[in-house]
Design brief:
Helix content: 55-70%
Order of helices and strands: HHHEHHHHEEH
Strand order of the largest sheet: 1-3-2
Radius of gyration: 20 Å
Structural class: mainly alpha
Number of helices: 8
Distance between the termini: 32 Å
Length: 166
């Protein structure tokens, strides 16, 4: 999962590397003739890895482009990826880690640590608090994130206060 623009740039670089690797594999006519199965497997595995990265890029760009005033439907493959919902919702709601930290009464470093470790180092209360702030709910078998008006107003106040400090 891509969590920020730095990871996005890194992922795009890997897409370029896979494209170049496949170009070299296709140009290797000797390997294609002597080991056609290995040649095909190399291409297919590169294509599969490249497609996974492209899917992550598409997902991240959609989260970044999302209008935070609207609810967003979020998907995960299985419940092992439940912490990813918090990160996806934070990105889609245009909250910084610092802003989420203020809501959760934690430090920005603590929120960064939670996200870096996929919330495995967070208490249940920290996890539940972030879910509440981000407005994540399960509706008809789908996860939806939408900040309620209380948190939206608090976010405006947080941003205004940070401008006064800066």
């Amino acid at each position: 999962m891509i969590k920020d623009d730095k990871e996005l740039a890194y992922s795009k670089e890997w897409v370029r590397k896979f494209t170049e690797a496949n170009r070299k594999i296709k140009a290797n006519k000797e390997k294609r003739l002597t080991d056609p199965d290995g040649w095909q497997l190399s291409q297919e595995s590169n294509n599969a890895l490249q497609q996974k990265i492209l899917d992550e890029i598409t997902e991240y760009e959609a989260l970044v482009a999302h209008d935070p005033e609207k609810p967003i439907f979020l998907e995960i493959e299985n419940l092992d990826y439940l912490p990813d919902l918090l990160i996806k919702a934070r990105i889609a709601m245009k909250l910084t880690q610092r802003e989420l930290a203020v809501f959760c009464q934690r430090t920005e470093e603590k929120i960064k640590s939670f996200e870096d470790k996929k919330y495995h180092n967070a208490s249940f209360l920290d996890f539940a608090n972030a879910i509440d702030v981000l407005g994540i709910k399960l509706v008809n078998g789908k996860f939806i994130a939408e900040m309620d008006d209380f948190y939206k107003q608090r976010l405006i106040d947080i941003r205004r206060d940070s401008e006064l400090v800066a």
